[in-house]
Design goal:
The complex is a heterodimer of chains A (224) and B (881).
Chain A (H helix, E strand, L loop, with lengths): L1 E4 L2 E5 L5 E3 L4 E4 L6 H7 L8 H16 L3 E4 L9 H4 L2 H11 L3 E5 L14 E3 L1 E4 L2 E4 L10 E3 L4 E7 L2 E10 L4 E2 L10 E2 L15 E5 L4 E3 L9
Parallel strand pairs in A: 4-5, 5-6, 6-7, 9-10, 10-13, 11-14
Antiparallel strand pairs in A: 1-2, 2-3, 3-4, 8-9, 11-12, 12-13, 12-15, 15-16
Chain B lengths: L14 H9 L6 H11 L4 E4 L6 H15 L18 E4 L3 H17 L6 E4 L5 H9 L4 E4 L1 H8 L4 H4 L5 E4 L2 H4 L3 H16 L4 E6 L5 H7 L13 E4 L7 E4 L17 H10 L3 E4 L3 H13 L7 E4 L5 H12 L5 E4 L14 E5 L5 H8 L11 E5 L3 H16 L12 H14 L4 H8 L10 H13 L13 E3 L9 E3 L2 H9 L9 E10 L2 E12 H5 L6 E4 L2 E9 L2 E6 L19 H12 L9 H13 L8 E8 L2 E6 L5 H17 L4 E6 L4 E5 L3 H6 L5 H4 L7 H9 L1 H13 L21 H11 L4 H12 L4 H11 L3 E5 L8 H6 L19 H8 L6 H9 L23
Helix pairs in contact in B: 2-3, 6-9, 9-16, 14-15, 15-21, 16-18, 16-19, 16-27, 23-30, 27-29, 32-33
Chain lengths: 224, 881
Amino acid sequence: MQVAIADTPVVLDPTGVLFLPESRTLVVADLHLEKASSFARRGMLLPPYDTKATLKHLADVIERRAPRRVIALGDSFHDSNGYGRLADADRLRLAALQGGREWTWIKGNHDPEFPADVGGDVIAECFAERLTFRHEPVEGLAPGEVAGHLHPAAKIRGNGRSVRRRAFVTDGMRMVLPAFGVLTGGLNVLDRAFAPLFAPGALKPFLIGDGRLFPVAFDALCPD
Amino acid sequence: MTAQTPAKAATPLPAAFGAWFATRGWAPRAHQLELLTKAQAGRSVLLIAPTGAGKTLAGFLPSLVDLAQKTATPKKAKPGAPIIGPHTLYVSPLKALAVDIHRNLELPVQEMGLPIRLETRTGDTPVYKRQRQKIDPPDVLLTTPEQVALLLASKDAHRFFKRLKTAIFDELHSLVVSKRGDLLSLGLARLRELAPGLKTIGLSATVADPDALCAWLMPQEPDAPRRLADKIIVKGGAAPVISIVETDTRVPWQGHTALYALPTVYEAIKAHKTTLLFVNTRWQAELLFRELWRVNDDALEIALHHGSLDRGQRRKVESAMAAGKLRAVVATSTLDLGIDWGDVDLVAHIGAPKGASRLAQRIGRANHRMDEPSKGLLVPSNRFEVLECRAALDANYLGHQDTPPLRPGALDVLAQHVLGMAVAEPFDAKALYDEIISAEPYRDLTWERFERVVDFVATGGYALRNYERYAKIRRRKEGPHKGLWGIANPRVAQQYRLNIGTIVEAPMLNVVLGRPKKGVIRGGKRLGQIEEYFLEALTPGDTFRFAGRVLRFEGIRESTAYVTQGEDENPSIPSFEGGKFPLTTYLASQVRDILADRERWSKLPDQVCEWLTYQEERSRLPGADELLVETFPHDKKFYLAAFPFEGRLAHQTLGMLLTRRLERAGARPLGFVATDYSIAVWALRDLGALFEAGRPSLAALFDEDMLGDDLDAWMAESYLLKRTFRNCAIISGLIERRHPGEEKTGRQVTISTDLIYDVLRSHEPDHILLDATRADAAGGLLDIHRLGEMLYRVKDRIVHQRLERVSPLAVPVMLQIGKVPVFGEAQTDILVDASEALIREAMGEAPAEPEEHARAIAAQPAANRPAKRKPRRAARAAGAG
């Protein structure tokens, strides 16, 4: 689905990534790789399949879009030691994805540090096609900002049932991407965390459905 | 006392006890002496007796006699000296019950001057007292299953329980059917290891299968016949006098409030000394309490009691009740169990009791003296409930019991126990296995499954073995504990203690009645706790009913919700849960019998007979073994209404499976709703015509094979299964409820169990936790067993009525549409207007004053209107960043 952020045309992919057709840049937020093993260190032995599953989804969309550049928008690893905990197969898979294209790791609050052998650039924020890419959105006006961090999800209700899905949120000027990792939860876009970013009522979510996106009016949203 | 004299020579009762009975003007009852004799012979015993039969005293008498005859035990242990632990352990499912029993036992102990110390130990016991109890234990310790597990998971357990002679399990019938009972059965197996020769005493209300409880009390051996404890059954005293409320007002078609009968209920309260009013849910309690005070012109002392209220508030009501200061208490199941409430002379049950045994136990709360008949009043809240109350009442006279059967012990509970045992001291896997299968619920556990549970506890039990370094328990490779499984580090023990227990509740927030001060709400009186999901759906200014008041929601700060006194009479947010307990199989079959047997209608109110007569004229009534399926058009859609009477849970599962099948058959189903009695499915194509043409036939639609692939496919996606998984994940210790150091802030589970479920299901579908989840769901939220039995029962007995319009019997379920969550695949407009037009259509031109019905429905309070904020949502995900 094609939309514009501060007049820059972008494509919202129904998997939850953003694609810039002109520079063939793919932007993915909040992978949270090795989240399960991060919990395991604290005594909660969550299923150790999240990294494999997340990388599989990422590989699929990279194959389909064939980007020249990938920007990982922060919190790519659930903690700074995450890269070191990758299983060999997952490390190889990640390296394969990085091969033949430019790869940019934006630092996030979960992964402020990267080991030297991670591959690609590590940076706090970057720019492409008049857009600014950073992990945490800044408060107030930020035209052309693309961020992650908040894990937006939207909920709508109808016929006595409700549907809650991950969502892109934008007001046409800036955008917050949904979290991509399989073990990442969502924060309702009506949460006050979104209030400093979007003027009241200006926020528009695109809900991720089965293989397609559903733009929804602000008035149709409901809290959790 | 004369009756006792001839037996004097043979009585096992010491003289001091006989004298004490005499001063109270009592004679020991036969079953009390019988139990004493058996216990003195070292036998374990199950005592089944109605309330008021002196059951508790009977259970404790052997211990009191034994302790009285021993010389005073040395008290405080010196450092390093062996700890002298309790002689008797009493376990009750309720903290309040332990406290109450303690009070009741102190009396004989003091009056006889016995050198016996009794103490309670519950979650409410202060830490210093709990620590003191471990150094200086009482003779009799009164406690709960969770505390038993905690005591056992300690290094001192060996010394602490060495002296234990007797374990008494109160309200055993209610414990054994829950996961708490599973945990306790494992604890009992360990107690037997620590205290060889331990005897058990079970106290229970009447149950359908006493032998199952007898087996629970005994250590079992593999491949041997079940060992049973001795059984003493005391027959009930005078038969209870139960009636169904009679009013001139119309009985509503649906709903759960029974407000139509309020004036009659109020008159009944006035006519009795103390009335206990039982309801099935907390919200019903709140509503009834408010409505009673609205008509309480005589300012009778009417109080409210349910599990969410502040503890202090509950204790106040309990003691006022015991002191005879209250005229009525509105209560939920928190009052079900044997606490002594003083002189209750009437028990009113609002709404149908859903089970014959539940009714008997609740009515038994009136007149806590066995020889006087207890008096009960049933207040059905809708027409189907009239039939159900009638069936329950008849069953009560026949003494029929329909308590649920015992199920095999749950694996998530086993995982928790295994970790607890490692916390206590390193264990040998084979020895622990042998101990575990001596517990009746786990007697059929295979070694292979046990090993998988140990593996799960150690490293998560994943095929991908990469958590070895994070293992919680490890098999020691060297040292004095070589070959034994012990915890990897002390933090594991701390985590275990913080997360013990099998009761997984929705996350709760404290509710505080604040005072506005300069525009800020300041803290004030704590009113109790409410589920987080409910409070989070509110916006400031919304009003709702709680703790007997209408409250205005102000906001949530940390784990506290602040409210102020609301001004409206009618809260803006209806909060309502329908029937919580599913209708028992037995009562369901009785309801079908009543429908099929005109003779039995004579006992029904006229308006209900009239309703059934119209049904017979316009459609038909199902035979006792038949399944009636009606099809009819309504409001441009085509409906199917079926009447299996198998309870809401089984019906929801059935509805899901039927819509899947109809979808495949091209009938374009849109959704369905389910009640305890029936389901309605609606579609865009003419279902009646399709069935008649055999596309599909009803027999094929309702074929048992729906429990195969269709069920598997649906279960995988079902939110019900995800909810079940959440419980299993928490009980088994995969997910923590509380993390060390974060006890205060841990408002919710830190990660979405839905996401974990999805990952696990797609990568390791045979994981043991998914097994546990499926087993739980099959018996619990999905009620698949019961659905399977129903499909088998109605095979070749499905009758189809193709109608021009909705039938009288289908009106109640049709009125539910739009009031309860609608399930189904399609998202088209599926709301049907629950209006008087629907009823008029059903009754046709009949002289049934349809307007009056409509008014009765319209007059029902806000709580019955569509729950626009029905509290169901995806489990909260972890916060961002």
